[in-house]
Amino acid sequence: IIINEYEWLWLNRDGSPTTLDKGIYANLFPEANTPEKRLKVYAKLMGITTEFWRAHRLAAGVLYFCGLSYSRSTYPIGQTSDNWADVKNLVLEPHFVQYMKPAFSPVGLMLDFWKSTLRGGEEQTISMILINDTYDKWAGNIQLLLVKDGKVMITKNITATIQQLGKENYRSTLLLPTEKGKYQLVAEIIYKGEQIKSIREFNVH
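Above: the chain sequence. Below: its structure as tokens.
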């Protein structure tokens, strides 16, 4: 199986919805009510979905659709689009780069975490999947961070090793703060000098 078209949340280059997903953004992401917010939502979800398909190793290939396409935000409005902010100078939309570049890292990881709400003061088991699509062994640390309002609340380091073309599962536990609010869970490795992050967001109540 080769996955060559997924997510179906296309936006035109100017951040306006295409004909296929105008209703999706209005109904599922009403808070994404500006082009900038929609582009960020799109990039986040594309990154998470890319991590999922790569990490679970159920497909021979995960191919992004589409690298270069049309973008029609006026009549006749298009159905799909690419992600160029400036196609003439080959500048990709910044949010797309932020979330999709690490999602396609040859050595990558995924937070196997899908809860949107957790109870404060409770211990939570965090699962992570590390993958290696190269022919070289990788060794290093997985840094697990809990972040609130840009401030790191908890940091944990997990020693990790993965063989060529491998997949490894790692777990850690976090005692959640009692303070209510929105949090980010971040798992991070360093690959060839670059930070490769998997990010999830949830609320503590």
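The longest helix spans residues 35-55.
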